[in-house]
Design brief:
With 524 residues, this protein is an alpha/beta fold. Helices cover 47% and strands 22% of the residues. Bound molecules: ligand LFPHGCPZ. It catalyses: 3',3'-c-di-GMP + H2O = 5'-phosphoguanylyl(3'->5')guanosine + H(+).
């Protein structure tokens, strides 16, 4: 009951995860996408501002070039020309000439209006030759920023241009207004011209961010700061575009989960029903003993014949039984069938009976009891029971498994390692566990191509088995060549279609009488 309850809970959890996962992934995806989008927009805004400022800057330097011819004049003849240049050109607040600390000619204020420091409302930075600098205001327009361009000769005379900050600020506002950006522009480390305002953030998830960029041509740096609201808006847009897809994905995942659960449940139910209705059969595949030239015993292999006549492949239903926690009931059922059928057999004492045991069963507390009960039912027949384990069985709970196997071995049960070479078993396991047989997987047998040919892995496995004093069995032997090769290399047992296919109990008895002592490959 508790088991069913837990299963129901885990099914519910799976459905919940399947439904929520696409939504959560969608949230994360749109969150990062929105951040990238904000960044892309900031980069575009910063690029636009830099480009525009560079254009204005280039115009200012062109103007400086035009003004250079008036550097040495006393502002008598060029006055009109300078006034024209200053008032007719776009962007400029004033242009003029200077000599030492004094302005000699100004397009805005005429001849000798004052000093350069008075013009820029502060101390003039000491820069030689050509330089540019952003300032907070000028004598005529104290509260509006500007950018000052100076060309100064070694004689301390020179020409200047004051670019009107309003042009730049109008442009900055145009770029930033739509997205609520705060933009800054700074020339040569001077005054920071700023438009827009962004409140500082207190939200960790959605916060504003600042992108900074610099001109490659001039000492101009700009920054674009986005607000939390912009980040949220971008995320909302991305999420609503993604939402329908996320809902479809959620439904799809839930559908897949439901299907998977149904399939899973049906495997478990079907296996239970199969056991109840006696749909499982056991076939026995004979094993040839090379030295004694006779059938040494059989390996029991489970078969599932559905009531509608369909056969389910053992590798499929065994894997499903293992996945669904049904392998132990199924193996107990198998042991019961074998014990029932073996009562009718007439075999010599010492006849081998191999049974496949799953890793989960070995780790179960009832494992010893299950095997002992099985052995007790066969005691009269004096058969040798061999438990066939895969390498996987040895890896988990190693010492506990080793103890259980050692106990059973003391009671006359033998242990074989099955499908050797296909698992991930370290060779040390072969020493640590007390084993009797090593069954070489048929993949290695298939590699045999000629009697003289080299099959290095197979040869190494055979020689390893000999060194460890394990008896060795070749599985899946299908050709006389494979048989000869294995025989020549000291393999003790042969199992495969060359000798016999798996047979039901009655067919096995008939086969033993007729062919039990004929070597593999003898025609019918
Ligand atoms: N835990 C349990 N596992 C079991 C049980 N019964 C079977 N199995 C495992 O299922 C896998 C598939 O088994 P099956 O389809 O029965 O195949 C066996 C033989 O029929 C096949 N075989 C034997 N000789 C040949 C051959 O010459 N050629 C060829 N192509 N196939 C051959 O090999 C399988 C025997 O495998 P093994 O157990 O490794 O000796 C398989 O992994 C079974 O172990 C069960 O009751 N419990």
């Amino acid at each position: 009951m508790a088991h069913t309850h837990t299963k129901r809970e885990s099914s519910g959890l799976l459905l919940l995860i399947a439904g929520l996962l696409p939504l959560v992934l969608g949230l994360l995806f749109t969150f990062f996408e929105a951040q990238q989008n904000v960044k892309r927009q900031q980069v575009a805004a910063a690029d636009a501002l830099l480009t525009q400022t560079e254009t204005v800057t280039q115009n200012a330097w062109d103007m400086i070039n035009q003004l250079k011819q008036y550097t040495d004049d006393k502002c008598v003849n060029p006055m009109r020309k300078i006034q024209q240049l200053g008032s007719l050109s776009a962007y400029f607040r004033a242009v003029g000439t200077f000599s030492g600390p004094n302005v000699t000619c100004s397009s805005a204020f005429g001849r000798n209006p004052g000093t350069l420091s008075q013009m820029v409302l502060g101390k003039m930075p000491a820069h030689p030759y050509d330089w540019m600098y952003s300032i907070g205001g000028t004598y005529g327009v104290p509260h509006r920023p500007a950018v000052l361009f100076m060309h100064q000769l070694p004689s301390s005379k020179g020409v200047y241009v004051v670019v009107e900050g309003q042009y730049l600020m109008d442009f900055m506002r145009a770029i930033g207004a739509q997205r609520g950006y705060q933009l800054t522009l700074r020339v040569n480390g001077g005054y920071t011209i700023q438009t827009g305002h962004v409140e500082p953030d207190d939200n960790l998830l959605f916060s504003g961010s600042t992108y900074r960029a610099e001109s490659q041509r001039f000492p101009i740096s700009v920054s674009v700061t986005s607000s939390k609201a912009e980040a949220l808006k971008n995320w909302r847009q991305a999420f609503f575009i993604f939402l329908p897809l996320a809902i479809i994905l959620s439904l799809l995942c839930m559908l897949l989960a439901v299907n998977w659960l149904k399939h899973r449940l049906s495997w478990r139910d079907e296996l239970r029903k199969g056991i109840r209705n006696g749909e499982f059969l056991v076939h026995y595949q004979p094993v040839w003993q090379v030295e004694e030239r006779r059938c040494a015993g059989v390996e029991a292999l489970l078969r599932w014949q559905r009531h509608d006549g369909r056969q389910v492949r053992p590798d499929m239903f065994i894997a499903a039984a293992e996945a669904e926690g049904m392998i132990i009931p199924l193996t107990r059922h198998l042991l019961n069938i074998i014990a029932d059928e073996a009562q009718t057999w007439s075999v010599a004492p010492g006849f081998h009976l191999g049974v496949n045991v799953a890793a989960e069963h070995i780790q179960h507390p009832d494992f010893l009891a299950d095997i002992r009960q099985f052995a007790a039912r066969l005691r009269e027949k004096q058969m040798i029971i061999t438990l066939e384990l895969t390498e996987r069985s040895l890896i988990h709970e190693g010492p506990e498994v080793a103890n259980k196997l050692a106990t059973l071995r003391r009671e006359g049960i033998r242990v074989a390692i099955d499908d050797f070479g296909t698992g991930h078993c370290s060779l040390s396991y072969l020493q640590n566990f007390q084993l009797d047989y090593l069954k070489i997987d048929r993949g290695f047998i298939n590699a045999i191509e000629s009697l003289e040919g080299e099959t290095p892995v197979l040869d190494a496995i055979i020689s390893l088995s000999h060194k460890l004093a394990l008896e060795v069995l070749g599985e899946g032997v299908e050709t006389p060549l494979q048989f000869e090769y294995l025989k020549n290399h000291g393999v003790n047992y042969i199992q495969g279609y060359l000798y016999a296919r798996p047979l039901n109990s009655a067919a096995l008895m008939a086969w033993l009488t007729k062919k039990g002592s004929l070597p593999p490959g003898t025609p019918d």
